[in-house]
Amino acid sequence: MRVLALLIGVLVLSGCVTKEIYNAQVIRTNNFQRQLAEEEKHSADLAAEITRLKIQITELEAQNRTLTTQLHEAKAQVVRSLEEVGRLQAEIKQARAASQAPSGAAAPTPKARGVAPSSTEPPDRLDELKLAPSGAAAPMRKARGAAPSSTEPSDRLDELKDDAASPHASKPR
């Protein structure tokens, strides 16, 4: 009987230890399942964020292409405007030289009438150039006493101020 009691005691004690180990494993498994669910949720959130960022990248690349195109167009327009300003300044200088010529006859303008403006001129100025009066009278009228407009280039304003201050500019012709 002693042996039997000892055996029952060992089985009861080993059963209790096994139950405690089982409960600990169940708790551990539940924790792992909870962590797995949290990580799966986090993974789904990250996948959604990746998708959103890919869409944003596509939109930003399209915007970048549009802005790059606009930048190139603006640069081309600036170049055309600078070329036109240089051409107009050359015409003004030639008109001044012609008006100050001793013979009193106006020299021909650098562009022949009837010749279409170059394609580098901005389209909004083409009509003005086609309608401009012939000869050098229009630029000189402005230089002889009219106040310069704020739309003229700043170096042109300085030329007009210098002409107005010179003694021969106030003499009637």
List keywords for this structure.
single chain; 173 residues; mainly alpha; rod-shaped; disordered C terminus
Percentage of residues in helical conformation: over 70%
Spans of 5+ residues with little confidence (pLDDT < 50)? 132-150, 167-173
Could you state the order of secondary-structure elements as H and E? HHHH
How many E strands?
0
Kindly state the mean pLDDT as a whole number?
73
Question: Rg, please?
Answer: 45 Å
Sheet with most strands: none
* Count of DSSP-assigned helices: 4
Beta-strand percent range: under 5%
Shape: rod-shaped
Terminus-to-terminus distance: 149 Å
Secondary-structure class: mainly alpha
- Quaternary structure: single chain
Describe the SSE topology.
Blueprint lengths: L1 H98 L23 H9 L5 H7 L10 H12 L8
How would you summarize this macromolecular structure in one to three sentences?
The chain is mainly α and 173 residues long.
What does this structure look like?
The protein starts with a helix and ends in an 8-residue tail after the last helix. The protein is built from four helices and no strands. It has helices spanning 2-99, 123-131, 137-143, 154-165. With 173 residues, the chain is mostly helical. The model is unreliable at 132-150 and 167-173 (pLDDT under 50).
